[in-house]
Automatic annotation (TrEMBL):
It comes from the Bacteria. This is S-adenosyl methyltransferase. InterPro entries: SAM-dependent_MTases_sf, SAM_dep_MeTrfase_SAV2177_type. The lineage of its organism: Bacteria, Bacillati, Actinomycetota, Actinomycetes, Pseudonocardiales. It holds the Pfam family Methyltransf_19.
Amino acid sequence: MGRPSAARVYDYLLGGGHNFAADRELAERFARALPGSRDIARLNRAFLRRGVLFLIENGIRQFLDIGSGIPTVGNVHEIAQAVDPTIRVVYVDNEPVAVAHSQLLLEHNDRAAAVEADLVHPDGVLDHPAVHGLLDLDQPLGLLMVGVFHFVPPERAPLELLARYRERLAPGSYLALSHFTADTRPAEMAAMVEVMSNSRDPIHPRTRAEIAELFTGFELVNPGVVPTADWHPVAPADDVAGPEREQIYAGVGRKTATG
């Protein structure tokens, strides 16, 4: 509880109540280093909603949300099950407090679960009993990595890591991913990276080209890898006018039969 985590910092920036004093203090430092942080968080959450609805429209009825944080208002099971109550969702996070909160919130939902596992261990995630209990990896699945892959350092070989997930997905599965970048405000992003460097979740921004490369083996859905606000916006609230709209790139890709 005394050590801040990205999951709870994100919850605070979104206006949630599942965070502690250490998280709030770090979040305020984060916001000073990177002005517009609350808008950045809101735009990222709006992309999640639009991405989930897009996947449902394209036949997906099961979701694996890795790096999910705390599934409070507006998270995947609420969005998806409002459309189809039979949709199944498994949340994965490596932060014990976030997972404990999630399990409490989901205890009466037999089509959603939260497990503690780490993104950088694909087999540990995909072979977890709770994942197998709710999801069928032989059928198309929506793999969500929204606002989490920037926590993967270069030494973890990000492309190879994502390839291991892709290889386990059935053809017709989708990847929805968003990721911090320093392309537009390098000085501010460098300050934010410094703020997060002593937390349990250091951040590693990547360029648009590097983020697009993460979709290797997936067929990118139009408009490709773009700022979150530019990915299938549907309402004025999905955008802002300031530079913060371009701090996170997002995209959705579909695994083909040969992917």
